[in-house]
Amino acid sequence: MLKHITTDLLKIAYDEQGEPDGWPVILLHGFPYDVHAYEHVAPRLTAQGARVLIPFLRGYGPTRFQSSATLRSGQQAALGADLLALLDVIGIEQAIIGGYDWGGRAACIVAALWPARTRGLVSVNGYNIQNIAAASRPADPEKEHRLWYQYYLHGERGRTGLEGNRRAFCRLLWTQWSPIWCFDDATFARSAAAFDNPDFVDVVVHSYRHRFGLEDGDPRYDDIERRLSVLPPIAVPTITLEGETDGVSPPGGRLTNATRFTGRHENRVVANAGHNLPQEAPDAFAEAILNIHAWTA
What is the pTM of this model? Predict the structure, then answer.
């Protein structure tokens, strides 16, 4: 069921499934995807008593900014703050949080900075908090070429290209990042509707410029960014997942940061799955959530 809540900055749209008194789970999508990434995960969880909430991130679907004056920020601190605000407004004291890509980053941020609100974490691609101070240091060419879309969006040509070709641009990323996932036109179209949000381009461009120090962030998040700059550890029980065929973050990449998980932690490589792991391998993702639930019962 699609619902809405209002925070100080946003009217957040979210899908809710399960009984209101179920054990709460928040699932967060990435770029360029939407809540349909969890369409086959949620039923597996609600069948085991979960209350599942899947929000549209800022800039996606029906989620809207309340004021035209608010910076359309896509910085990591904004995503974490939005998740915390959602928990506060709905009145969820503690939840299992799962996500990938942008959603995995928001989940890692809340788990690191507000661990009392996080019963456990499932994060695709490991420790997702950005090391912005080190972003200007080039990586090896094999990794750099996979990030072409980020560099493209650093210039105004890229912004114009995304604005005019957002569906073709995003579909190309789907195919590059999940090379063996045979999604059909209807599956893509359901998610692509979320990219018609009037703030999508601004939020996406700001995200990929801020993380490289090319644009300032929203001053309201300065304190959170300062706390994230030290790459805080994550102490809550965590399962990290990696898609075996992930075309943008192959297995073994961010797990160089495995020491950032200081509590119970297990990493799993999921066969025949790419970057959009929850939608490609819903059983594996749901199993990880259920395992966290069992660990912390």
Answer: 0.97
